[in-house]
Amino acid sequence: MRKRRWPILIIYVIALAVCAVLIYVVPSVLGLFDATYVAKHGSVVVSTSVEAYVFRNDKVYTADVAGTINRLVPEGKLVKGKSRIVELSGNGREGMENKYEEILDRLGPRGTTVAQNGVADKSGYVSYQIDGLENVFSVSNIDNVNRTTAESMDGYHQMEVQSGRCAVGEPVFRIAGNGNWHLLFWFSNEEPLPFEEGDYVTLTIDGERLDGRIVTVKVGNEITRVEASTNTFHTKLMNERKIEVGIITAEADGIILRSSSIVEKDGVKGVLVRDKVGDNQFKPIRIKADNGKEAAVYSDFFMDDNMEFVETVKTYDEVVSNPTEEDVAAAVNVNDKYK
Q: Is there a single domain that holds both residue 124 and residue 195?
């Protein structure tokens, strides 16, 4: 008799476990119990991410004599013009290494400047990395670079210049001009462009914010060419050619609403708010920023196009998450009481 009880007990425990999963776990995953949520204050950021090519005002300096290099200025330091960057002394090498010859070939005969006595005649940020594309990706040449040209350069990478013995004519440092960084990227014409030419935007690189501006927008048959600029320094702007950049086109503080809860009633956008007795009321909203998942809206009251005050959502309102058409039709506009 006791032996028969164990299987029954095991089946009973399993049944309880299955019921618990069905009642508590599955609904929470599917959001079936999340019929409403509490409106709270917060912020919404509207942004998009692109891969952009960096254009700078670079100047590559070469050794005026063969010698052993002593770097006087650390990587990334901002210097004034006529600053001495390196010191060459002692014995150097007679012949130039092949890797530097290739870089100088890409730069061309006018792509370098001799650093007389290790001095830079230009102000900017000191870098000991070059790739030979400094002229192609210069700000003055940006109008001549199309997507095919830019992508054809993806195989070239930054290389550190000599830090020991060098030959005459070898590159020894680079100066990146300060305050004029440009970015070039493309959008598919199938995507809505989130900005216009001349707009001021916030750029982000690795989470760091930079003030930016959309310089040009050129719409093609299939893609749109966009040039942006910033005067804010970032290490990646100084040394990298292709970087991921975030573009913040709008951000706002306010009551945060889920986009799924926003509906229209009589041509007016709003949400359904559940009152204390369980009835739904329609509250019109005015959106400040919407990223497709959440929207920041005005709270308490806002002024409509007729310059009249409209009652809207407030903190701690119980908002219906996914209202049906029947819910919307049955809800009464809270502003009807003022008529």
A: no
Question: Structure tokens of 165?
Answer: 């013995």
Whole-prediction pTM: 0.76
Enclosing domain of residue 217: 47-52+181-251
Token pair belonging to 55: 């254009």
Q: pLDDT tens, position by position, for the chain (339 residues)?
A: 444 555 565 665 566 666 555 555 444 444 444 599 999 999 999 899 999 999 999 999 999 999 999 999 999 999 999 999 999 999 888 888 888 999 999 998 788 999 999 999 999 999 999 999 999 999 999 999 999 999 999 989 889 998 889 999 999 999 999 988 999 999 999 888 889 999 999 999 999 999 999 999 999 999 999 999 999 999 999 999 999 999 998 899 999 999 999 999 999 999 999 998 889 999 999 999 999 899 999 999 999 988 999 999 999 999 999 999 999 999 999 998 776
- 272 within 8 A of 258, measured Cβ to Cβ: no
Both 63 and 168 in a single domain? yes
Residue that is written with structure tokens 């310059």 in the block: 307
Residues 6 or more apart whose Cβ sits within 8 Å of residue 257: 39, 271, 285, 294, 295, 297, 313, 319
**In terms of domains, do 214 and 160 share one?**
no
Q: CB neighbours (10 Å) of residue 58?
A: 24
Same domain for 311 and 221: no
Task: Determine the 3-state secondary structure of 95 from DSSP.
Answer: coil
Q: Per-residue DSSP letters for 259-291?
A: GGG-EEETTEEEEEEE-TTS-EEEEE--EEEE-
User: Does some domain include residue 29?
Assistant: no
Total structural domains within the chain: 3
Could you tell me if 262 and 331 lie in one domain? yes
Tell me how far apart the alpha carbons of residues 112 and 11 are, in angstroms, rounded to a whole number. Answer: 82
- Cβ-based neighbour number of residue 308 at 10 Å: 10
Contact 246, 51 (CB under 8 A): no
19 is a domain residue: no
Is residue 148 assigned to a domain? yes
Give me the phi and psi of 189, to 5 degrees please.
-70, -10
